[in-house]
Sequence to fold (184 residues):
Amino acid sequence: MATRRIIRNLALVGFMGSGKSTVGRLVAQDLEFQFVDTDSLIEEKAGISIAEIFATEGEEAFRQLERGMILELAKKDKLVIATGGGAIMNPENFASLKSHALVICLWANAESIHERTKHQTHRPLLQGEDPLGAIRTMLVEREPVYKQADVIVNTELRSQREVIAQVRHQFEESYEGTSGRAES
Ligand code: S3P
Fold:
């Protein structure tokens, strides 16, 4: 028997700088859902920034906090969840999100991501000597996983307004409310 999947939430995945938080916040307003950002929730819980967690405890410690946070969100509903760009690289995180949320990937190419992120300093993985090279390498590694999202929205070809409309439309097609509906 196929596992019953009830869409109660919307999860945005995709590379750093793909617009998950900006788009997520606006879509949440439209849907009258609560917007949450896993990075911000982790920072609130830890009492320090993501950059400080990476610097003092290392990436692995961050990934554990991220995993715990994603598993906690599975209990909730009416959320728009912006995830950190590396979150779904852990298959357990991806499976958890898919169990309750429509997973939409915001896609952008390496050059656009570099343009959008090059003046920002809060992302430890992009602070090296060659951020564009790092973006290209990580994007190649991550692309096969991002492509397993339920929906991929290419942000290159659309205005922000169109991206929001597309995300919202896709979500409304699959949202089952909090009561759920049996799969046929
Ligand atoms: C990361 C993305 C970041 C944050 C952390 C690691 C990644 O989130 O979780 O710096 O591995 O791609 P954003 O995608 O919101 O920048």
